[in-house]
Amino acid sequence: MMKLHYRFRFLYKISIPLFTLSTLLMMYSFYLSPIYSTTLERSEKMKLYMESYIIMKYTFLYHGDLHLANAIDENNAKCKALESAYFNEQYLFKAQLFEKIDQKMFELFMKARQYKKKIKEIIELKTQLGIHHETGLYGSLRKSIHGVEKEFAQYNDNLRLMNSMLMLRRHEKDFMLRGLREYIDSFDDEYNRLIEYIENEKLGDKKELKYNLQRYYKEFHQFARLYTQLYGKNALVDETQMLENEFMHLYNDFVYYLEEERYPVVLMMKYSTLFILTLLGLFLALSILLRKEIELARDVNPLTHLNGNKSIEKHLELFLPMPKERMVIYFDFDNFKPFNDYFGYKKGDEVILQFAQLLIEYFSKKGFFIGHIGGDDFIVMSQDVEFEKIIEQIKMLQKEFVYYTQRFYSDEAQQTGKFTLKDRFGIARSVDLLGVSVVALILPKERIAEDTQELSNTIASLKKSSKITKLSVASLL
Description:
Elements: H1 2-63, H2 68-88, H3 94-97, H4 99-129, H5 136-152, H6 159-178, H7 181-200, H8 206-231, H9 236-280, H10 282-297, H11 309-319, E1 326-334, H12 336-343, H13 345-363, E2 368-374, E3 377-383, H14 387-406, H15 411-416, E4 418-422, E5 428-432, E6 435-443, H16 452-469, E7 471-475
Parallel strand pairs: 6-7
Antiparallel strand pairs: 1-3, 1-6, 2-3, 4-5
């Protein structure tokens, strides 16, 4: 017994410095780990913002929506806020440990800035070229063409003249279609031949004819110059594609480097924690079991970590009888099952998580309650708020959600608003893209409700119209 006693005393003596050292290492690793996690999280946000830029660029090129300029500014404000939050956050020893990580993170931010600048240039050039056929240089070119055709109409019997004019138009259209320099040269050659022919032929009002041709020539070259700057080889659009590739390369390199740097910290945390747990024994084991029981008891959705059904029911019991103006907002995805069938449940969960994050960004303020009913159904409750402002926030959320989900689909699907999916019988059918419908139900101050069934029935009836209008707003009288 004495020998056993001495052994325990020996183990006790050596366990104190080992326990102290392990505790210090564990504290140090626990201090570093959140910094790495936060850094990784912010890099992922930066990637999402960059992907938003990319979606906006292609949306503008295909649809020419000038309102996207405002969306770009909003996205840019988020990037700046993220950059400010990252570089202004104060950590002890962070400068020494994270100098290279900060440098790589800064490169990501700078690449996004460059990309945003290029998008602004694309919008400016595209606007000058013409958003539609009737605007910008495109519209001016069409007017010039009509002027030339009007003057040439009186010479329909001059086959040489009309043939030359048709060839000129053909080179112009070939350039519009392919954007190659050779068609500009062919256009110039044909133009010179046409001018020479007009000078040598006995025609009527040569001055007016040449004036319209020169105007057409000038307008075409102005258009071709800007068109080449935008769509030509190694021009703006190509530069943005290169920046996209460079950003993704930097991002992947950043994540890889961050994980490499984080790995020793993870090992330190793992083994120091394991040693402390071994020393603490049963007490810590029981504490962990108790903590797990508490976590299991918490009523949160396992995917989004938003309030679950029990919390929603409890909040409704307190919310409905309130003598205040209130609003219940119900969110339901459109065409979510086809999206899951086509892209898989992993992407479906990713979309649900992104939507939950949007709800938190827009409604995580005092006076709001956010709940996840399950699947693609969400609920938000608010009191004593500006309902018109909430409606605007809902519309912005819907728009941002659509921008996010667009990246999953092909360019063709984004243009048409539909994609092709085979059903269980193997028959291909056209399906609308993923979206979200919203029911916003206002409860006036004098309307004190106690039964949730009436609320559920009203929302259910409004859901049908929301699938068509995307947003149904009503008041429970």
